[in-house]
Amino acid sequence: MPPSARVFPNREALAQSFAAILIKDLDRIEPDHYYTLALSGGSTPEYIFSYLSDNYSERISWEKLLVFWGDERCVPPEDTESNYRMSYESLLQNVPIPDANVFRIRGEDDPADEARQYAELVSSVVPFYNGIPQFDLMLLGLGDDGHTASIFPDRPDLFTSSKLYEVAVKPDTGQKRITVTGRLINNASKVYFIVTGKGKASIVSKIIEGKSGSDQYPASRVKPASGHLVWMLDKEAAALLKL
User: Fold this and answer.
1) CA–CA distance, 178 with 155 (Å, rounded to integer)
2) 70 three-class SS
3) What domains lie within the chain, and their CATH numbers?
4) How many CB atoms lie within 10 A of CB 238?
5) Which residues pair with 129 in a beta bridge?
6) DSSP summary character for residue 2
7) Cα-flanking dihedrals φ and ψ of residue 72, to 5°?
8) What would the pLDDT profile of 132-145 be if each residue is shown by its tens digit?
């Protein structure tokens, strides 16, 4: 199944649609069940998270959510580069989600140890499908170089790794990160890319339209077995698509 692109006039409309997706999915959850959501970092998710906290604090069944992360910088949680800190300040501290429902990656710990421990944590909480954990929804962003989560173009092996989380290094800075692998991404029930801005238009069109050379980009290897892959784009990010 080819990826589905949904184009919105602006970030606000995109955020409203994402909120509607969460509300609909959570309404289907049985009272004694949970919905597992893996968050991404970046400026676009930060806007979405802030919009949700400002407008949907009382309209989403936050107590049904179990929140995880797809990747994290190897920094303490109070560091300005922490994905957890961004998510906490823009969303989690502002909505009625129990602390026990939030499972952060411990970026301050030894990277290799934490990658292993977080994989074990996810395996102990998230229901299995096809023999490994299956997130209900995996949220992904897209870098200018085609990376997603913290899987960069120089590490295509992270899509074939037998592990669930691994240590990665951002090529231009040398910063260590802990990232979900392709094995877990492509086992998710639903995968949503959220991408905005004219700066992403070129890479978006290359990957979605499968242009020559696009297979070098990690994001092009996101192909969930469920077939549920959706690109949520504002009109600027979608400007070069032939829709």
Assistant:
1) 13
2) coil
3) 4-234 (3.40.50.1360)
4) 23
5) 132
6) P
7) -155, 145
8) 999 999 999 999 99
